[in-house]
Amino acid sequence: MNTVSGLKATGYNFAYLDEQTKRMIRRAILKAIAIPGYQVPFASREMPMPYGWGTGGVQVTASILGKADVLKVIDQGSDDTTNAVSIRKFFEKTAGVRTTTHTGEATIVQTRHRIPERPLRADQILVYQVPIPEPLRYLEPRETETRKMHGLRDYGLMHVKLYEDIARHGHIATTYAYPVEVAGRYVMDPSPIPKFDNPKMDMSPALQLFGAGREKRIYAVPPYTHVRSLDFEDHPFEVQRFSRPCALCGAEDAYLDEILLDDRGQRMFACSDTDYCEERRASGHTGLQGDAA
Amino acid sequence: MSAKPLLDVTGLTKFYGQRLGCEDVSFDLFEGDVLAVVGESGSGKSTLLGLLAGELEPTAGHIDYRQQNDETVELGSLDEGARRALMRTEWGFVRQDPREGLRMAVTAGGNVGERLMAKGDRHYGQIRQRAGDWLEKVEIEAQRIDETPRSFSGGMRQRLQIARNLVTHPRLVLMDEPTSGLDVSVQARLLDLIRGLVTDLGLAVVIVTHDLAVARILSHRIMVMRRGRVIEQGLTDQVLDDPADAYTQLLVASVLAA
Amino acid sequence: MSKKSVLTFVDVGKAFTLHLQGSADLPVVSGVTFDLHEGECVALGGPSGIGKSSLLKMAYGNYRCSEGHILFHAEAAIVDIPHASPHAMLALRRKNIGYVSQFLRVIPRVPTLQIVEAAGVEGGLDESAAKNRARDLLSRLNVPDRLWSLPPATFSGGEQQRVNIARGLCAERRLLLLDEPTASLDAANGAVVVDIVKDMKRRGTAVLGIFHDDAVRTSLVDRVIDMRRYAGAGTSEASAA
């Protein structure tokens, strides 16, 4: 029924992909949910956008989107970068769904490189755009071998990467795409989110889906699943701390971006999650440069 | 003497289609035994090593290994996971080309520490400490622990590969021509080092070599292979000093002072 | 006096087959039959090339036998050396049978004292006993103690030879095979070796050896086996040994 109305509205099938393809992707998603953290191969389609622009996430979103859904798209926490805007427009046009910038209003959030600051609910789904799904690739380029390592839970190599970090930098210097172990079994690349966001994945009420278009892989973290960031006993996992609160909203618990203000190197630190920052300011919170913004 | 051998190989045979890799190879190996497998290229010695390492599937025959817990397992009956676990704890494999046996983009410390991390060690300081101890044992200066093997000489790379294999105190180590391609003086030092470690740790070793001098220095026993078959085996000094088979006599005669 | 047998040769024969020379058979010895007892020193006699060294090497498992048996009477069982598994033979060499020739198989980079000591430990001495024995042997054989912590690779030929003897004699052995161990040693050191071997004999070690030195022969040897009796069927000059 969606199909028919979608076709009528725009000339596209609902959410662009044909129903057979969506069914294929949904099957992959179901398998991914059944085996948390396991990379399920799927027949990734050519999308009307280049690889690297979220083709994996878009295909996942297209396959789970219903007419009643409210979609939010963020890129590094922001709703209004080119990538976020064009994906939002894509679904407005091909599916006619309502879109929003408010995390709280969205039923599906497609994201590149961030998890929203506002805690997600059980009726929400977070769709990640993933460039490289294989966390072991950095040290073992052979896909046949990394698959075996996952299959056999042969994860010594993952710690070699962290060991190398400490050996070279004195601490675990991996700050994004920080590897996690899902449900005590598979080691997974959480996509290039800052490790600041890693703890949000653990026991999240929301379903988390990961789509890698170029690499043709889908994986998932079901709701309320343990997600543990790998570490050493004497170098435990730690998130980034910021030495000051957000310059605009005064938030102390949010991930901050450094923003250059002028040509003389004036800069400020402000929430990377623009919606979170705006909502805080709307409810009266303010930072040191709150007026200036 | 009455104890069961560590490794008991019976009738091991490998055909690549119609082509013979090796046929009906049988031997046993006890703790502390060093067995040299000698022969020219194409003799089947590399096939044999591949079979022992579980990298090739035998056409016939079996390999029984007595584990640390004294239980004997047939290698072919192990699933891939169990086999790999065995390979990185109780077994080692020193390859001819250190670039195949090492991770060239990973530091010396990471290379040595990998097996520790693979078996579950999660304390960075302790892993690093043990890696450092092992670098010392193989005569690599401790301050080079954070360098990658790319900056190492051939001999150092080979020594690093040995440390990487021995850090988990394996009981059986397979070595594939570990000294070939090295300068003579570097070779001598490496042989010395291997012999010292083998004695100190009571390792059982199967070393494949075409170099009878290496066999003479390192091994207690020799197995001579030709065209896929074992043509002579026995104590190293016996086979080299009193070779019975025509081919072995030729081999020995063509080497200066093996 | 009926002492226990340590080594029994039964119809032992040896021929080399030289495949590289048209499979020519070179007979060395045949029909060797004799007994060696605890505490006894037997010398192999006869001209050079008669197969004395070959027979010692056969008793050590270094050369194969073409026929017959060489029975070693171990504490628990009798081992037929030519038919023993390599594993069993290695164990015999470690624990029971010592072989000393005049040539040191140099072990580079291991300190002298440690080489001698290790031989003792391998032969069943406990560590402190091995250490004491090693020190005692080295000093009796006039290896200066400043050399003990150095590897023998750089020593003079005579010093290397004496280290080798100390190593060969450190452990208690049931059987000692001596292939002219004192050749090219000076008289004083030769006498020391004789003393040490005599001590071991007294403790029950059986000795089978080749001795060209008359002084050594008179003071050590109880019995001489004339190897000419066992010359291989063929010319007695044909031995490759």
UniProtKB/TrEMBL annotation, chain A:
Entry EC number(s): 4.7.1.1
Highest taxon, organism lineage: Bacteria
Transmembrane segments: none
InterPro entries assigned: PhnJ
Keywords: 4Fe-4S, Iron, Iron-sulfur, Lyase, Metal-binding, S-adenosyl-L-methionine
Catalyzed chemical reaction(s): alpha-D-ribose 1-methylphosphonate 5-phosphate + AH2 + S-adenosyl-L-methionine = alpha-D-ribose 1,2-cyclic phosphate 5-phosphate + methane + 5'-deoxyadenosine + L-methionine + A + H(+)
GO biological process: organic phosphonate catabolic process
EC class (word): lyase
Iron-sulfur keyword on record: yes
Example GO molecular function: alpha-D-ribose 1-methylphosphonate 5-phosphate C-P-lyase activity
Family membership noted in the UniProt record: Belongs to the PhnJ family.
Function: Catalyzes the breakage of the C-P bond in alpha-D-ribose 1-methylphosphonate 5-phosphate (PRPn) forming alpha-D-ribose.
Protein name (database record): Alpha-D-ribose 1-methylphosphonate 5-phosphate C-P lyase
UniProtKB/TrEMBL annotation, chain B:
Keyword Iron: no
ABC transporter domain mapped to chain residues: 7-252
UniProt entry keywords in alphabetical sequence: ATP-binding, Nucleotide-binding
UniProt GO molecular function: ATP binding; ATP hydrolysis activity
PROSITE patterns on file: ABC_TRANSPORTER_1 (PS00211), ABC_TRANSPORTER_2 (PS50893)
GO BP: organic phosphonate catabolic process
Name the UniProt record assigns to this protein: Putative phosphonate transport system ATP-binding protein
Organism: Arboricoccus pini
Lineage: Bacteria, Pseudomonadati, Pseudomonadota, Alphaproteobacteria, Geminicoccales
UniProtKB/TrEMBL annotation, chain C:
Keyword Transferase in annotation: no
GO cellular component, one term: plasma membrane
UniProt keywords, alphabetically: ATP-binding, Nucleotide-binding
One Pfam family per UniProt: ABC_tran
Coiled-coil region list: none
GO MF annotation list: ATP binding; ATP hydrolysis activity; transmembrane transporter activity
Protein name as annotated: Alpha-D-ribose 1-methylphosphonate 5-triphosphate synthase subunit PhnL
Organism field: Arboricoccus pini
